[in-house]
């Protein structure tokens, strides 16, 4: 379905017709026809902002049969939301469906919604590949969301912080739950991870902190504590 509101909004912001065509995925003739109808009916963005696409379509083309089509999701917004903790594509698809119903539009099925976003994400992720030697470095951090564990005897529920360590080259991972994120848990997590990997990488990288090397000249307090655990 043509996004009448978005075409009028972009035109109001001074966006060129060519860029409106790219942004709204429609033809130049469609953009020109809608903007012509908007001028004919005196519809500016201040008026169109309070209307749905269905209402604008009925105003511009009364009685004209509408071909069956589905509204494309705002993949740029979805990409931003996916970077937030706890947000899933299922949740965003449900919000997208609710918005489509409010506007009188037809939403994509979940599988098509995911495919649409995946295509966008492949083009939006302009990243530089970091080449790491095997065993040279590991990435460590606490998981964003906490888990829970149950006492098998009492059934009492306890909160658990999730430690994650990943070898940068192979992506081989180590995961362990701890009752807290204090220094003792942090050091125990590293010691257990090193035993699991069967060695100690030269570089440790933390997402929320700067990278640290196993050297007494940097982060002396942490290095001494870590060295003591490594020797055990």
Short description:
This protein is an alpha+beta fold and 232 residues long. The chain is built from 10 helices and 6 strands.
Could you please describe the fold and organization of this structure?
The protein has 232 residues and is an alpha+beta fold. It has 3 domains: 66 residues, no CATH class; 58 residues, no CATH class; 95 residues, no CATH class. A hairpin with a 6-residue loop joins β2 and β3. α1 packs across α3 and α9 crosses α10. The radius of gyration is 27 Å and the shape is elongated. The relative contact order is 0.08. About 6% of the residues have low confidence.
Helix count, per DSSP? 10
Content of β-strand: 5-15%
Low-confidence stretches: 210-223
By secondary-structure content and strand pairing, the structural class works out as: alpha+beta
Mean pLDDT: 81
Number of domains: 3
The largest sheet, given as strand count, sense and whether it forms a barrel, is:
6 strands, mixed
Q: Could you estimate the helical fraction of the residues in percent?
A: 40-55%
